[in-house]
Amino acid sequence: MGVLQQRCRKWLLCWTPTWHLLIFFLMIFTVSGQIRYSVPEEMKKGALIGNVAQDLGLDLTRLRSGRARIVSGETSQYTELRADKGILVVNERIDREELCGEVTPCSFSFEIILENPIELHRITVEILDVNDHAPTFKNKVINLEISESATIGSHFDLESAYDPDAGIHGLQNYVLSPNDNFALKQHSNADGIRFAVMILQKPLDRELNPHLSLKLIAVDGGTPQRSGTVNIEITVLDANDNPPVFNQSLYKATVAENAPLGTYITTVNASDADSGSHGLVTYTFSNVKGKSAEKFEIDSVSGRIIVVDNIDFEKDKKFEIRVIAKDQGGLSDATKVVIDVVDINDNAPVINIMSFSNMISEDVPPGSTIAVFNVKDADSERNGQIACSLDSNLPFKIQSSLTDYYNLLSDVAFDRETKPEYNITITATDSGSPPLSTTTTLQLKISDVNDNAPRFTKPNYSAHVIENNSPGMSLFSMSARDSDWNQNARISYFLEDTEVSGSPVSSYVSINSETGVIHAVRSFDYEQIKQLVFTVRAQDGGSPPLSSNVTVKMMIQDQNDNPPQVLYPVQTGGSVVAEMVPRSADVGY
Predict the structure, then answer these.
(1) What's the pTM?
(2) Cβ atoms 479, 499 nearer than 8 A
(3) 390-403: per-residue pLDDT in tens?
(4) What are the transmembrane regions (predicted)?
């Protein structure tokens, strides 16, 4: 079962000093910490790794509402997050040797992301080794030819065993079957590889015993202990009293990854003071660590080493090979060849979008998180250093968060009426020479908010209407425009409550709320009212709605609909009007 090894009480303590320069307090993107579990390899599918909810201090409701999920990590297929229970379980069989090879300790990391608000938690799972491999030898038999004249103390390099397990479960010891002539001495390289050397402690006598059969047993430190055996067949030869001697105890060389097959590495050289066949030296590789023997080949006569298989720096950064020089009399010497692999920039960055919503409201404040993405480069050092960029004319910026994680943030306030959508191209470029880059494009749409009131096409309206019109007649129309979208741009027209000559304006005219057409409610009489002045309101369908007003002046035009009337003299009764004229009236009275 998984055991919680470490949890950061304060997440800042989990960050390296480099990260201290990158700490920003984001409103909607937080990192709560990281946890570490240890589990043995070869666990069954469904086996519990750890209670993530409990260890992160999250309840199950938060895991479900935040759509908690594993979002990154090339080894994320090994684990499964069961958000309904808040636990992390094994998703498929984990083989520590397949996952990490000879790297120890062996672990892999991934991130769990929650949304609304966004949280990112890093999980590290350490895979503990179990003793599931026995030491093995490359060959079934070690054939040695040793001269009877070999001196006491002569050493004979034996093939190394290989155990992919780590730590105490790896190769620990060699045992030589009991015999009178040889003792076993064990050594370790600086990289931890153990090898055995057989030391002659009693002279050989070909006439008494021309052939010896021994066994070399390699054992590990597991419980129960595992072992591997190889037979040593020794043919005793006549005198060969000088072993080969290498001119260097250590050879160093470099090779670029992806070097063509046949690329020259180095040449080893050993000399033998004997003459004839006893002085003829041949070169072979001893058992090499991991897959080194598949990558290189040595010419048995010249000692020239070349590349025979593809080399990938991302898989192997260094090779150590033991080379044996053996003469025809069975005497040998050994040297070590260390080959450093030089990284070349052969991997472009990879962009993974962790979280992105393709629509955002135009009223979000600058600095809002638009997307969270991850960038990785399999190369190392400068070849793996990434810089992310955007098109310079876009109103966005990129901000680093965790290692290899970035936030895409808005940099200005949006205006849908000016720019309704953006195509955002993110470019990730490494620092190699020449640099490699990768791009990905996000399409972001800006959703509308009701931030624009309707606007009439004219600052005011005026119209002329001839009196004695028919009630219901269409008088004239007005229109307004709203630059918002959809419901926010749907306009309705209303008469403002005002009075004309003591009567409400609605008793004179009406307006169609959808078209803005004004109709007469009654027949107008110029002799009673000569003009109407009223206000029309245009209101959109937003929430809350926005509106604007305009003044309408309607002039009533006269018709000849009244005959003249005699006002004086006043008729009193009949059709004849009597008027008294003074006798003394002058002309023109």
Answers:
(1) 0.56
(2) no
(3) 988 889 999 987 88
(4) 12-31
pLDDT at 431 over 50: yes
Q: How far is CA 221 from CA 174, 207, 225, in A?
A: 11, 41, 6
Q: Which residue has the tokens 């000559």?
A: 501
- In this chain, the answer to whether the domains covering 136-342 and 455-557 adopt an identical fold is yes
> CB–CB of 65/39 below 8 Å?
no
pLDDT reading at 575 higher than 70: no
Q: What is the third-level CATH fold of 136-342?
A: Immunoglobulin-like (2.60.40)
Domain spans, the chain: 3-128, 136-342, 350-447, 455-557
The structure tokens 């201090």 sit at 57
Residue 10 clears pLDDT 60, i.e. is over it: no
Q: Confirm if 494 and 469 have CB atoms less than 8 A apart.
A: no
Q: For the domain covering 455-557, report its CATH number.
A: 2.60.40.60
Residue 455 token pair: 């606007």
CATH architecture of 3-128: Sandwich (2.60)
Q: Give the mean pLDDT of the chain.
A: 86
Tens of pLDDT along 264-311? 999 999 998 877 777 899 999 986 556 677 899 999 999 999 999 999
Cβ atoms of 398 and 388 closer than 8 Å: yes
Report the alpha-carbon distance of residue 428 to residue 377 in Å, rounded. Answer: 10
Query: What's the CATH architecture for 350-447?
Result: Sandwich (2.60)
What letter represents residue 24's amino acid?
F
| Strand, helix or coil for residue 55 | helix
330 close to 145: Cβ distance less than 8 angstroms: yes
User: Residue 194: its pLDDT value, please?
Assistant: 83
Give the dihedral of Cα atoms 568, 570, 574, 580; nearest 10 deg.
-80
Residues in a beta bridge with 581: none
Instruction: Please give the radius of gyration of the chain, using alpha carbons only, rounded to the nearest integer.
Output: 48
Residue in this structure with the two tokens 């004229």, named with its chain if needed: 581
On whether the CB atoms of residues 179 and 209 are closer than 8 A, the answer is no
Q: Is 134 helix (H, G, I), strand (E, B) or coil?
A: coil
Q: How confident is the model at residue 156 (pLDDT cuts 50, 70, 90)?
A: very high
For 187, the 3-state DSSP assignment is: strand
Looking at the chain, the whole-number percentage of residues with pLDDT higher than 90 is 51
**What pLDDT is recorded for position 279?**
84
- Cβ neighbours of 439 (radius 10 Å): 12
